[in-house]
Amino acid sequence: MAAPDPLDLIGIDDQLSAEERDIRAAVRRLCDDVVAPHVAEWFESGELPDVRGLAKEFGAMGLLGMHLEGYGCPGMSAVDYGLACLELEAADSGIRSLVSVQGSLAMFAIHRWGSEEHKQQWLPAMAAGEAIGCFGLTEPDHGSDPDSMRTRARRDGSGDGADWVLDGRKMWITNGSVADVAVVWAQTEEGVRGFVVPTDTPGFSAPRIHHKMSLRASVTSELVLDGVRLPADAVLPEVTGLKGPLSCLNEARYGIIWGAMGAARSCFAAALDYSKDRQQFGKPIAGFQLTQQKLADMSLELSKGTLLALHLGRRKDAGTLHPAQVSVGKLNNVREALDVCRTARTILGANGISLEYPVIRHMNNLESVLTYEGTVEMHTLVVGQTLTGHAAFR
């Protein structure tokens, strides 16, 4: 009997089909070719210099809107998409965010809630990476409580054909400064509505956010809407209320469940290799009990988190995945991945803070992933409500 693969200690690969393993391998090769040689430099400079080139590479691979059907989208399974997210985030959380925001937020919103005209106009170009989208929900003063958003959309005129006029601000928006289209959520007299906003519309601007110490290989922006005038048909017609944006967030959170394990795997692999080479007191530090305890604990959490992601992926493909189960996955996997990365840093010692290794980059990135798409506190309360039947959000 062959010894287990140290990066797959319990043999999770046995639960994947040959096609799923092939998809994972193809995404890993793409990341090795177009991301890995440059990502440390992008992180250090705080720039992602060729976002459109990357988007076209990912579009050609079928990674944009990967799990959506029609309109140029590949229509692949949830598990296929999850495995892709794992490989993308093993490269960098910012790269996975580029793909997640495009496919699971902006494209999903249009695909699920948009008109046929919206779908025909935007989805084929977005699937190909020829158009980039962003998703405007979070505001400077309102993150976890989107129902209190201040962005407003009002009718200007009479009847169903009246224009919409949007005013407000959105914050921490991935892809904002490079987007061709923004899906923006705003308060209206009818409740929260979504709007498809071409970013060349007068009154729309998206200044970049600088001085980040996390997700530095990612474009992050503020969206400014000053009297943005849109035609009547710019509104997403199929949804009113928070059901719209929250359904999109669940799609993105699902990808994070997998992606976090990619970051954890990258750091675990770096720590394992380093421990075998680093000599102290006359032998590799891998030969010391305390180092082996760290490596064993990291491997256990990587195995359990990946199993959880796969289980939830199978449920999603079967149509039985509940939003509370997505919260379980996001809460557990990001929290444990961050702990794996921090432990890896201790094994690398001072080298753990160098961008010669991926560890500090993943650590910093996961501090953002821990917060976005629902904080630890919010997902804890979702799980708590599911367990007890009592909402404790207020």
TrEMBL record:
Keywords: FAD, Flavoprotein, Oxidoreductase, Transit peptide. Residues 17-130 form the Acyl-CoA dehydrogenase/oxidase N-terminal domain. Residues 139-159 are annotated as: Disordered. Its cofactor is FAD. Residues 139-158 have a biased composition (Basic and acidic residues). Belongs to the acyl-CoA dehydrogenase family. This is Acyl-CoA dehydrogenase family protein. It comes from Nocardioides lentus.
